[in-house]
Amino acid sequence: MSAEAVYDCIVIGAGVQGSFTAYQLAKKGKKTLLLEQFVLPHTRGSSHGQTRIIRKAYDEDFYAHMLDECYELWAQLEKEAGVRLYRQTGLLVIGPENSRYYELVKTTLKKNKVPMVVLTRDNFSQHIPHVILDEGHGAVVEVPAGILYADRALKTAQGQFQKLGGVIRDKEMVTDIKPGPVVTVVTSSGAYQAKSVVITAGPWANRLLAHTGLELPLEVAKINVCYWKEKVPGSYDIEKRFPCFIQTECKESKEHIYGLPSNEYPGLMKICYHAGSVVDPDHRDQQTDRSDIDILQRYVARCLPGLEPKPAVVESCLYTLTPDRHFVLDCHPTYSNIVIGAGFSGHGFKFGPIIGKLLSELSLGEVPSYDLSPFRIRRFHGNTKSAL
Ligand SMILES: Cc1cc2nc3c(=O)[nH]c(=O)nc-3n(C[C@H](O)[C@H](O)[C@H](O)COP(=O)(O)OP(=O)(O)OC[C@H]3O[C@@H](n4cnc5c(N)ncnc54)[C@H](O)[C@@H]3O)c2cc1C
Which residue range or ranges hold the FAD dependent oxidoreductase domain (predicted)? Predict the structure, then answer.
């Protein structure tokens, strides 16, 4: 056991949520240790890659509500660190005009006074060239939405954390957690103690929670991150103000399909299917199911005729899904000084700064800034396993 003094908090997992939690704790002057199993940066979890979408187009009001402060916190971090993390592109939402989800998204945007433009069938192609709008589908653009530079955001949050005196130990896997008034965290190279622990282990959450006798209903899915080549270079480019998009449902699928304009790989547009096949995070590449890519190929060929209908590049990323697709932000049911941030269900990146704030509040025993009832463990109604 190392002779370190007791930390105020140990955060386990340096993805977006753990990095922002550690940063928030350090900002509050708390002595914080951030542990990561892999050498940083890495591409094995959920937070790697260059871009993510930030949007308020949600069917639930509470997400849009949290995003007000989220945009402010992203801007604050940009200012503090002197880096650009957000770029406005707008978000095009397309869906069957009378579907419940599409209607709810429009209602959320309206209710939250988000600047938006409703496109008509007549003016759609003038605003959004090279996209086919299906018969019976509506289209609305959420104007302030955009992209976040994901890899850069992680590096920035971790860098600011270190500047504030925070300690990061990467290539150090947590192998055991011993609960108590002071929690002991055992790793591949030592043991540390803290008044509280935050578990933000992404796809490995249940593996860590097993040490505390808890199992959450989480499912890990592999997402094929597909990049599609423009037939005419620049047609879907960020510089030409092509927006991000979400197709809520279409002939090919009931599940969302989403895309980001050509940016990180010039001439290649990122388009993904918002679902994947179940996988063990330690054997990610053994999952070779391509049925999602088949769906995307059919959709791209029909609705995005300016793209080659076969992906030029396919990368991998993991979703950790809860049954209702809402996050888990809560204290452990048995040990109140063990806090859990998990199940970000493929839409958690944009919330990083606010999740960090909320998890830091929980770990310090403070009243959380938002109503966390949608994110509580008890909503699973016994669909959790406790060995204790
Ligand atoms: C393809 C794709 C597209 C997405 N698009 C969007 C989007 O447009 N907008 C959006 O808001 N969100 C998006 N998301 C979701 C978002 O990226 C995730 O919700 C978020 O990255 C989850 O972060 P995390 O910190 O929970 O997990 P992770 O990033 O996986 O971090 C967990 C970390 O814990 C570490 N760890 C695990 N076990 C241990 C251990 N025993 N010891 C030490 N360390 C450990 C892991 O190595 C890992 O680094 C997308 C996700 C994917 C995969």
Answer: 8-362
- Supply 17's token pair: 């949520």
Mean pLDDT computed over every residue of the chain: 96
Distances (CA, A) of 191 to 38, 44, 171, 178, 211: 17, 24, 14, 10, 15
Please work out whether the CB of residue 292 comes within 6 Å of at least one atom of ligand 1.
no
Q: Strands 183-187 and 174-178: what pairing?
A: antiparallel
The answer, yes or no, to whether any atom of ligand 1 lies below 6 A from the CB of 46, is yes
* Superfamily (CATH H level) for 3-47+151-214+324-380: FAD/NAD(P)-binding domain (3.50.50.60)
Average pLDDT for 295-322: 98
Is the peptide bond preceding residue 41 cis, with omega within 30 degrees of 0?
yes
Ligand 1 atom with the smallest distance to the CA of 203 is 30
Give distance in angstroms: CA of 161 to centre of ligand 1: 18
What amino acid is encoded at 1 in this protein?
M
pTM for the model stands at 0.97
